[in-house]
Amino acid sequence: MERSRLAASPLLSAHLLFAAVCVIAIFSLTFIATGFGSAGRPRAASLIDSAIPDTAACSLEADLDRFREGNLLPLIKTNTSSSQQFHCVRASSPPVAVRGCGDCSGPPSVAFLFLVKNNVPLAALWEEWLALSMDRRRFTVYLHIQEGTGASEPPSSLRGAISVERVKTSYGNFVLAENALLKAALRDPCNQMMVLVTVSHIPVSHPDVAYDVLFQHRVPETGGQPTSRFCYAKAKPFERSTHKGMGNMDLDRTPADTASPSPSCQDAESTIGYDLKHHQWRAWNRYHASIVVAQGLTYPYDGLPWNRGHGPYADPSEWFGHHVLRRALGNGAVWKQVNGGLQTNHTDRCDDKILTEFCDTKTCWSADACGYGMGRSCSPSGPLCFSSLNLTKLTETISSRHPLFFRKVPPDATLFDEGGREVGRVTDLLIPLIRNYSRPVLVTSI
Ligand SMILES: *[C@@H]1O[C@H](CO)[C@@H](O)[C@H](O)[C@H]1NC(C)=O
Ligand SMILES: *[C@@H]1O[C@H](CO)[C@@H](O)[C@H](O)[C@H]1NC(C)=O
Ligand SMILES: *[C@@H]1O[C@H](CO)[C@@H](O)[C@H](O)[C@H]1NC(C)=O
Ligand SMILES: *[C@@H]1O[C@H](CO)[C@@H](O)[C@H](O)[C@H]1NC(C)=O
């Protein structure tokens, strides 16, 4: 695929940026005037109005049924009283995602899927960030709001966000909410990549850079779609990492159902490719999202305990979605379809370069705050919550292509300079910093 990039010096890019900002400003005005552009894309006046109903004219359920019948094979249950049905991908089925509703008249888009407890404290920041994009139609936003909605006012929200129908969640288990978000995103045929985020995420790249990165790698195994992007643990099975929480998780080794008419999808219990704790913040391509959503599975299943095996404690949300995909595809196929197509052997591909490129959300666990600033553990087994970020480090991060996002950042987090002086709030300075220091991709041919 032909791509033109403009990697300029910081000084030159500052000038180009100014020009780009002017162009963006004109574009933004156009989009403010016309809603969010693409015909047929719903424009939410408020969160409450915005859930998209499954209508007879376009039933995503029917689309998913067809996908399941055409692409998946039910595994034979080992526990016949289990209400869940795991599937694997038919050997002969083409990697084609569910179609969605209507036609896509705009550019391919990235759907941000926010898991929200009761509000989006950084909503204004995300809105400003999205407005920096050269084409606002490149991004859609979906929210699953766990509580606080209903008859009362919607929570502080993102303009244009679509609120998905609320499903049951519990502490550490948002599997059903993730499914509901992916499913809502699949309705829009423009959505090609779906990125799970939380309300403590901040973007640390220009949106045009994020877009380019997310669409960068395409492989024939996914029908030319961009590859999903998953952050894997570096530690080998059963090795403990020196950093708390950074180790592998062995929970996903236990297969759900062991008998299947197709042997090709029975190798998911293999010991390669572990999920990194706290890294459900994956970017799913449309095909992989279809495989997961068409099954609608959740955890626990078959009476398996919440916390299994060795390794650090892990919540189902952290590993289950990926487990379902691996079960369905098998390891042989999954490595060819994620992270740029890691080929057949992930064991030696989990090197620093791969992790840097595909761990899109930076999360820090170590007491030194990974050089990003100051923070403390906000829960016993959780990563750091940052109270203050190092301005120099943040600027460096913004200038580079990776990572794209950073967490956990509360709304009152500040920035400090080289003299240790507080220079302002992240919420006030992040967008100007991205404007000044990112090197946007001015032309992307997708
Ligand atoms: C089988 O599944 C049922 C329903 O989920 C569960 O209650 C039971 O414990 C499971 N049995 C085994 C042996 O896992
Ligand atoms: C994967 O690669 C590692 C390191 O190169 C090697 O030791 C191992 O045998 C390979 N595994 C397979 C299944 O090819
Ligand atoms: C901030 O980060 C930069 C770049 O990593 C580092 O060189 C510097 O020492 C840090 N400054 C402070 C005050 O921690
Ligand atoms: C961004 O650049 C402008 C122009 O050089 C400067 O005035 C402003 O202070 C910069 N903002 C930040 C947050 O670096």
From TrEMBL:
Pfam families linked to this entry: Branch
- Molecular-function GO term, any one: glycosyltransferase activity
Record's keyword annotation contains Acyltransferase: no
What residue intervals traverse the membrane? 12-36
* Membrane topology term: Single-pass type II membrane protein
* Origin: domain of life: Eukaryota
Its predominant location is membrane
Location in the cell: Membrane
Q: Which GO terms describe its cellular component?
A: membrane
Q: Does the keyword Glycoprotein apply?
A: yes
Q: Which UniProt keywords apply?
A: Glycoprotein, Glycosyltransferase, Membrane, Transferase, Transmembrane, Transmembrane helix
Q: What PANTHER family does its record include?
A: CORE-2/I-BRANCHING BETA-1,6-N-ACETYLGLUCOSAMINYLTRANSFERASE FAMILY PROTEIN-RELATED, OS06G0661900 PROTEIN
Q: What is this protein called?
A: Uncharacterized protein
- Provide the species name: Vitrella brassicaformis (strain CCMP3155)
